[in-house]
Protein 1
Amino acid sequence: MSTHPIHNNLNAFHELAEVTRTLSKVHRLILPELISQGERWVFRLAECAGLSIANAS
């Protein structure tokens, strides 16, 4: 019984799906941008990104 070549890449597809799901959250893109601009306290990151402190930390 042979497997279809697509099945050989199934794990890679699952990982790619996880990455795209993560990046689809806008706040997960905003936080690294804010951090790249310089050090900030968590409460300031939260304020700038429109998040709660718990979610920003």
Protein 2
Amino acid sequence: MTEATAGRFLGLSQGLSQGLSQGLSRELLEGLSEHALAGAPHEQDWRHTRLRACLEQGLPLVPEPFKALAEETGLSVGEVRALIGYWQHSGLIKRVGLVVRHRSLGLTANAMVVWNLPDERVDEVGRRLASEPQVTLCYQRLRRPDWPYNLYCMIHGVRRERVEAQIAALIQRHALEHVEHQILFSRRAYCQRGGRFTPEMP
């Protein structure tokens, strides 16, 4: 199994999502909402394309990331924030989050649990699992003819036995004993990054 995500995102764990909103994402979440409704920037130019390309690389890890993006693209800070807000509001940007390279932190016992749930229960069970502190993400995927599972959740840990014990406790706590599932421990991590959709610019 490789470590990757796709499908309909149902949630981060409470601790992780709170950490995101209180840390790196605070300025983004607080500052962009008013720009999203303040009027869409209609005129496209190379600076907009460069901004999209920069965002695909991730926010700069500096005290003022929007200022750094403005200097990189030739836009003002206000224009950067307005464009990001507009793209978020229009759906071009779906989600802003952290990419944690967990293996570098010693989290090498990483399990994806896949569940075969009735479709009408996916939202309810998915949101309950996503609220658990040990579940780092939870999302829905379409079933396949040879793969009946439609709900996926990920648990990262240091020791395999501890992760297995956490999964057993989750199953008991949420009365999922009779739900078909598999526990898939990852063996290797591939490139962890967001999508790349913008051509490279000089």
Protein 3
Amino acid sequence: MKLHLTYTAKNCVLILLAAFFLVIYYYVKPHSVTGKHQAYSEMTAAAKKMKQAQQAVRQEMSRRGIEIDTTVDRLDSGLIGLEWSGITTTLGNVESKRTTVNPDFAALLVKLFQEAGLQKGDTIAANCSSSFPALNLAFIVATDAMGLQPVMVTSIGSSMYGGNREDFTYLDMEQYLYEQKIIAHKTIAYSLGGVKDVGQEFEPEIIGRIQKRLNSYGLQFLYGTDLEKNIENRYAFYTATAYTPIKAFINIGGNLLSVGEYNDSITTETVRLSASTPIKTGLVGKFLQSGTPVFYLLNIKSIARYYQLPVDPITLPEIGTAPIYYYRTVQHIWNYVILGLFLVALYLITGCHNLFFYEIKNITDF
């Protein structure tokens, strides 16, 4: 004897069934899947090389008898400079400088370059001040890890707590690491930095001593008193010197040529600037207008927070463990399973299978 549900009973069952599945659907959480970023090996290689570079700089400073104030450089990195010196250009935030000595910044740049589509052999132009020695080195080791070709110009001047030691500037650090074969690339040209990028506030005697060393490193000296012509010449220098067409541009620090006469500060917390960023002046403006991806490293605390890197750390995380090394996706597989079960139950209770077979039978009879 077959039991048949009445129309009213079916409605009641359907209502209860719907309520039951809605409750389950609400309480079942999406399934989170975490995996290593596709550039994980290059990211960790860059971070490890960055750590090695820091240790080498620290050891060389010790050999030269350069003292480090560990109340300022709390991680004893050697990459935090003096409060003031003869090549200090502007105020600087020591917490921001200490944030940059994290080797994971090298890994972050690899991640961002890879996601921008940069590939082995591509050329990337770089405009750097000496305000963030750690970020300049992070950029170099990132390009080494990816096999990129950097065309790098660096200014001598530095804000407070940057590479502002007159007897061991950032460019001296870089040259030492290059000679020790710890890094494969280095700056190819330099400017004075400071006011109008010509060091108007520097004493000639101090600059003279530093330039004598830098010239011995084979670096080309770039100088121009007219700001707009200086920007034009610098842009032309990049394009003329590049091994291949320039695929990206990065600015590190606050060198005047970066944004030229642009008066508003760039407050973005992402390193890569949007193509719609309203900057038409300076090197940043020129590369943006040419459609070239532009990376901008200056608002360090905001950048660190955005990418979940520690701000002004007392200790550093183990390389390869920070969130930047991983991707996370949310899968809703159980929600789909519940929906499927609901549809099956709906199909069985409403007798839709009988209607289906009835229609098939009629088609066959015809």
